[in-house]
Amino acid sequence: MPRRLDDRDGERRCRDCGAWKPLAEFCANSRRPDGRGSYCKPCFNARSKASYAKRIREQHGRDVRQPPAVPDGHRRCPACGVTKVLEDFPRNRSGRSGYGRYCKPCHNAKGKESRTRLHGGSREYHLRRRYGVGQKEFDELLAEQGGVCAICGTPDPQHLDHDHRTGWVRGILCFNCNGGLGQFRDDQSRLAEAITYLRGTTWQRVLIHPGVYQMCSPTRGRPPSPRS
User: Fold this and answer.
1) For residues 92 and 100, is the Cβ–Cβ distance under 8 A?
2) GO MF terms on file (predicted)?
3) Exposed, middle or buried, 174 (CB in 10 Å: 0-12/13-18/19+)?
């Protein structure tokens, strides 16, 4: 087959911009023997947009609205209409640029609206997604506990405790007790060692006479510092 005048080894000259470019930078065309068209990708996209605008004008009598120019490293949020730097958009590995479509405030607002519409609120969404229960089950379990933390008795606890191995809900705890179990990794031996440690290092205040107390020394440790 004779070579076209606008072809050379591994390259082609675009019929619009006249630039020589590798064949990989030309749009696919199954009707061509080499599988590539006559226009580079930028020129092909420009032609497609112009053709679409002409068709809309002829068929519907209106012009296609042109999006505002966006500088490199920026993106226009379609929700608020503001052009922002890419760092103001959440990460999204599935997107071509690696960033989401909406800026962070709009992304958060849309997520909150979706959670409210589908689940009745962020609290219900969080409980259902992470623990498999809703606010109704949470309130029932808290009532069974008497409305207090299952460990220390602090009123109105808000943290749902669960077994990290099985995912089963165990009870409702206050912030400190829930965090404490997490720091000890739910390990009973660690907790037992902590109790032994406290018993051996904490000075005890013992009543030796009405209104008179004496600090008793632990098995190990230093005496308490005097109060200033």
Assistant:
1) yes
2) endonuclease activity
3) buried
